[in-house]
Design goal:
By secondary structure, this protein is mainly alpha-helical. The chain has helices at about 5-15, 20-25, 45-55, 60-75, 90-95, 95-105, 140-155, and strands at about 115-125, 125-130. It contains 7 helices and 2 strands. Helix 2 packs across helix 3 (about 45-55) and helix 4 (about 60-75) packs across helix 7 (about 140-155).
Length: about 160
């Protein structure tokens, strides 16, 4: 899994308190290590960290994945090498997710197979997204979509 997810997860955990990062590693029986944004790490490690976070903060994993996705979205929009025209609004960004994902992959040493994401404009103010991944991180994807909408419109309701 892409290292930027891990490096931003640390920042996300720090919002709970300074000890959360260490605590989730301990709960997951993993050693604390630095995560490089351009490196790749096992998906199982990411999932284990979220299971640990769920235990440490006593919140459902899906709720935490959603919240993390929303937190992560603005960082994805400004990832080095990702080009999003300034005039793009939420729906245009959502339509371009496969292209954005390819731009991120081209700038990264991260290995592994990203999820399969398809998009189709189905109406003037509607985009249908398809997500297929053995990781089953749909809640993360939903949070990213909400975060993109919030980052681009301020209120999450802009098309």
């Amino acid at each position: 899994m892409h290292g930027m997810f891990f490096s931003h997860l640390r920042q996300f955990c720090d919002a709970y308190d300074a000890d959360t990062w260490r605590a989730i590693h301990q709960k997951s029986e993993l050693h604390v290590q630095p995560y490089l944004p351009i490196a790749s790490y096992p998906l199982e490690r990411f999932i284990a960290l979220f299971e640990g976070l769920s235990d440490v903060v006593s919140a459902p994993r899906s709720q935490l994945l959603d919240a993390f996705g929303s937190y992560l979205a603005p960082h994805l929009l400004t990832y080095p090498g990702v080009t999003i025209p300034g005039y793009y609004r939420t729906l245009q960004v959502l339509e371009d997710i496969p292209k954005i994902e390819a731009q991120m992959a081209a700038r990264s040493e991260a290995a592994g197979k990203p999820p399969s994401i398809t998009t189709r404009r189905t109406g003037e103010v509607e985009v249908t997204l398809g997500y297929t991944s053995p990781a089953r991180l749909c809640a993360l994807g939903k949070g990213i979509i909400r975060g993109i909408a919030k980052a681009l419109s301020g209120d999450g309701h802009d098309a």
